[in-house]
């Protein structure tokens, strides 16, 4: 005889706290989330508009802001829904897996992008005269795309 139980829903219990705090926590986390998204959008907009910022360092910073914006968007809306509704703690198995993979994919991509950014700064400091010929736009785009593609390959094989 085998176990034939099927898990379709999880209930997020979180840390124990007074239910009266839900409204205050909802407002606090909503403000933090909105400021995070608006801050990242502002970084994207300023770098896009100002032509003086079209350098490799700011190109990677644009990618980092984009990833950071989506990284916070993966978890915070579900947390806000859990705080706002009494039965909002339930999450389906498929939603849980999608959120888990998205969270890990974006977090790993952010770490890989930090590595690429540190390599960019290493080249700028160690080889200042050859830096502009070494870090052309095509190289920057390939390095940034490589972070996404390599992680897609890693997560598709699991």
From TrEMBL:
Q: For this UniProt entry, what is the primary localization, expressed as one broad class?
A: membrane
One of the protein's GO biological processes? sensory perception of smell
Task: List the source organism.
Answer: Marmota monax (Woodchuck)
Q: Which residues cross the membrane?
A: 30-47, 59-80, 100-119, 139-157
Tell me where it resides.
Cell membrane
Topology of this chain in the membrane: Multi-pass membrane protein
Query: Domain of life, per the record?
Result: Eukaryota
**Sorted alphabetically, which keywords does the UniProt record give?**
Cell membrane, G-protein coupled receptor, Membrane, Olfaction, Receptor, Sensory transduction, Transducer, Transmembrane, Transmembrane helix
Gene Ontology, cellular component aspect: plasma membrane
Q: Give the G-protein coupled receptors family 1 profile domain ranges.
A: 39-158
For molecular function, the Gene Ontology terms on record are: G protein-coupled receptor activity
The protein depicted here goes by the name G-protein coupled receptors family 1 profile domain-containing protein
């Amino acid at each position: 005889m085998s176990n034939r139980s099927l898990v379709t829903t999880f209930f997020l219990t979180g840390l124990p706290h007074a239910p009266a705090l839900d409204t205050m926590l909802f407002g606090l986390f909503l403000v933090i989330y909105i400021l995070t998204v608006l801050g990242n959008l502002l970084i994207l907009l300023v770098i896009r508009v100002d032509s003086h910022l079209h350098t490799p360092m700011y190109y990677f910073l644009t990618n980092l802001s984009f990833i950071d914006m989506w990284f916070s968007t993966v978890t915070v809306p579900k947390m806000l829904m859990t705080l706002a509704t009494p039965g909002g703690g339930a999450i389906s198995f498929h939603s849980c897996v999608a959120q888990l993979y998205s969270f890990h994919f974006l977090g790993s991509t952010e770490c890989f992008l930090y590595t690429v950014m540190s390599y960019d700064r290493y080249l700028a400091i160690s080889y200042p005269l050859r830096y502009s010929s070494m870090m052309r736009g095509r190289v920057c785009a390939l390095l940034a795309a490589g972070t996404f593609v390599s992680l897609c390959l890693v997560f598709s094989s699991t």
